[in-house]
Each structure stands twice: as structure tokens, then as C-alpha cells.
Write a structure and sequence with these properties.
- With about 250 residues, this protein is mainly alpha-helical.
- It has 2 domains: about 1-60, no CATH class; about 75-250, no CATH class.
- The chain is built from 7 helices and 2 strands.
- Helix 2 packs across helix 7 (about 235-250) and helix 3 packs across helix 4 (about 140-145).
- The chain is globular and about 45 Å long.
- The two termini are about 25 Å apart.
């Protein structure tokens, strides 16, 4: 078995990474004599109950304002809360101890590392993509996501870890994880994307995942645009991951 442990943020509280639940990914067969589908539904129902219990317990925590460790995010008021909160939890890291570089594009490997930390994923890494070297700081996180079947690479056993990640690819990966955890249903009406003026730029493989995220409030868009093919900045990534955390806390 392999485990995803979700860390749901209780907004406004110190040490707000709440151990929300453990979701067991079962490979091959179905335990306890029940069908695989029935068992997965049982597990998803159980972990959602644990989410509610953990959040109720967190109500007793005394709130305080997190300390800002970065001196280059003052011009990003729309992302400042997300960056500071995630940094305090150890989910997101700066490019140095004092700089976050909010305007720069986030690397594919760095985004995966953030998601692995957010959900507390663990797995025995038996191998990795051929272009993810063992001496790289993101080797373990990318390997965990690969082992759990959450990322597939670009073909030929490669992941292109140093490349920037587009917004639509960021959303597709998040959708895959949230569905595995039982927080998103498989079905959605892709017509919901037509409210955005650039919906026709969305790649076919990303339409259904993005429709699910929009329908459930995980994607708000930039005004009336989704900018699916744009590369994602570090500040944008922080805001999206922070929103996921808060949405998990509300469920």
C-alpha cells in the first residue's frame, strides 16, 4: 500500500496543516472480500468524516498572524497570504531564505514537490524518470508522485523536470490527485468552461479536468480568462495550492 496524507489548512490558525486523512491506494484485488469499487467508496466516506473531526478540533487553536520570511512579495497582495501560510507550514520554499521570486515561472518538478508536501504523500521510490537525477533536490518527490501513478511524464521515460509548467497541466495534475482522494466526482459538464473567453485554447486532455475544478470552486480564473497555455508563476502556484488546502478544510 501507498499513502496520501492530506494537509488541510484551517484559515487563520497557526500550524494550520491539519492531518486530514489517510487514503490508501490499493493495488490489485479488494480487501475484506468486498469489491474494489465498494471498498474505495468506504475509504473515501471514512476519510471525509475524519476531515470534519480534525477541523472541529482545530477550532480550539488560538489564532495568530504568520511571520513573513520573504522581502520580495510586498507587491503581490493577492498572493501574500498564501505564500506566507504555506511557507510557515513547510509546504512552499523560497529561492533563498529571504526571497521567494513570485514573478518567476515554477518548474514542473517544483510543482510536483509542492503537491507531494501538501498531501503528505509517501511511497518507496523504486525508480524514476531518466532525466530526474538522484542528486537533484526534487528526486524523491517526483519519484513518489511517479510511484503513485499521479504523473506520467512526456514520453520515453522522461519528465522534463526543469521546464516551466503550464496552467492547464498544473490543473490536470491537481484534478488527478483530488479524484484519487475522493474530493472530485468523475463527471462534469465541459460547457462550464465556455464562460471564459479563452476556453477554446484549452487542450482536449485538459478540458474535463478543468471543468471539474471550475465546477467545484478550485479554479476561479483570471477575471474572465483561464490562460491555460500560459506558464504558471510561483505566486500563482501558491494561490492555487492554498485554495486547495482551504477547500479541503471546508469539505
Amino acid at each position: 500500500t501507498k499513502t496520501l496524507k492530506a494537509m488541510a489548512v484551517k484559515e487563520g490558525y497557526a500550524n494550520s496543516g491539519i492531518a486530514a486523512f489517510n487514503y490508501i491506494i490499493i493495488k490489485g484485488g479488494s480487501p475484506g472480500g468486498s469489491s474494489g469499487g465498494d471498498r474505495k467508496k468506504e475509504v473515501k466516506d471514512e476519510v471525509k468524516e475524519e476531515v470534519i473531526e480534525e477541523i472541529e478540533e482545530a477550532e480550539e487553536v488560538v489564532p495568530r498572524t504568520p511571520t513573513n520570511p520573504f522581502n520580495d512579495i510586498s507587491g503581490y497582495s493577492w498572493a501574500e497570504e498564501a505564500i506566507i501560510s504555506l511557507a510557515e507550514q513547510g509546504i512552499i520554499k523560497g529561492v533563498s531564505s529571504t526571497n521567494f521570486a513570485p514573478h518567476t515561472n515554477i518548474k514542473r518538478a517544483d510543482y510536483i514537490a509542492l503537491m507531494v508536501r501538501l498531501f503528505g504523500m509517501t511511497a518507496d521510490v523504486q525508480g524514476n524518470f531518466s532525466d530526474v537525477r538522484p542528486d537533484k533536490y526534487y528526486y524523491q518527490e517526483v519519484g513518489i508522485a511517479r510511484e503513485l501513478g499521479l504523473i506520467e511524464g512526456i514520453g520515453d521515460q522522461q519528465f522534463n523536470p526543469e521546464a516551466s509548467i503550464t496552467r492547464q497541466d498544473m490543473f490536470v495534475i491537481a484534478d488527478r490527485i483530488l479524484r484519487a482522494l475522493g474530493f472530485l466526482d468523475d463527471e462534469a459538464d465541459v460547457g462550464i468552461l465556455e464562460q471564459f473567453s479563452d476556453y477554446d485554447q484549452i487542450a482536449p486532455y485538459a478540458k474535463l479536468p478543468m471543468a471539474r475544478l471550475v465546477a467545484n470552486g478550485y479554479i476561479l480564473g483570471d477575471g474572465r480568462m483561464l490562460n491555460p497555455v500560459n506558464n504558471t508563476t510561483r505566486a500563482e502556484t501558491a494561490v492555487f495550492i492554498y485554495r486547495i488546502s482551504k477547500m479541503l478544510a471546508k469539505n
